[in-house]
Amino acid sequence: MISYIVYFAIILLLPIYAQMKVKRTYKKYSKVRSTSGMTGAQVARTILDANGLQEVRIVESSGYLSDHYNPMTKIIALSSHNYHEASVAGSAIAAHEVGHAIQHKESYSFLTLRHKLVPVANISSNASWVFIMIGMLASFSNLLLIGIVLLAAGVVFQIVTLPVEFNASNRAMNQMVSLGVIRNEEERHAKKVLNAAALTYVAAAAVAVLELVRLVLIYSGMTSRD
């Protein structure tokens, strides 16, 4: 009983901690003006042009931290504050999204794999819990196994996302430093923003793996009783 309480506490609190961490770090460094005086949109444009990505457009998006890169339309969407303001946090996030655009241009292997997994992960993750719930409630191990296999596809997607995000952050730091977007102490601040953002992906992957392991153990217990 205690082990279950600890388990559910971990899978509930870890994502909450990660979200709080990224929001707190972003809030802090979004108030620190970058010495370059460049807005997030200008940072993104500078890095894109330096890497021969003039065709990639930058637009303003609604929502809090809604920044993303769409490889289908070749558009980088930056949330309003990051788009208009000249802050260390905005520069880091804008550069991170450009990092994805550079990955796309170079056909970065993990990004290519993640794109291929998107439709599979969307379908399997939603369908998996139908089989899992029926399998567990009816003690039907074969249905539970199907659910576990489907869920595993979503877990693979979460794991593949990690190198994609870390690589984009590394590219972002290299580009910002080499192009003079950030200087001296700003490098450390930008890394904190990017590391906090990466923590959300680590937390999601960890929770997904833990849940998969739990279900595999339940399945093993069911089959051993058959």
TrEMBL record:
<keyword id="KW-0812">Transmembrane</keyword>
<dbReference type="InterPro" id="IPR007395">
    <property type="entry name" value="Zn_peptidase_2"/>
</dbReference>
<protein>
    <recommendedName>
        <fullName>Zn-dependent protease</fullName>
    </recommendedName>
</protein>
<dbReference type="Pfam" id="PF04298">
    <property type="entry name" value="Zn_peptidase_2"/>
</dbReference>
<feature type="transmembrane region" description="Helical">
    <location>
        <begin position="6"/>
        <end position="22"/>
    </location>
</feature>
<keyword id="KW-0472">Membrane</keyword>
<feature type="transmembrane region" description="Helical">
    <location>
        <begin position="193"/>
        <end position="219"/>
    </location>
</feature>
<keyword id="KW-1133">Transmembrane helix</keyword>
<feature type="transmembrane region" description="Helical">
    <location>
        <begin position="144"/>
        <end position="166"/>
    </location>
</feature>
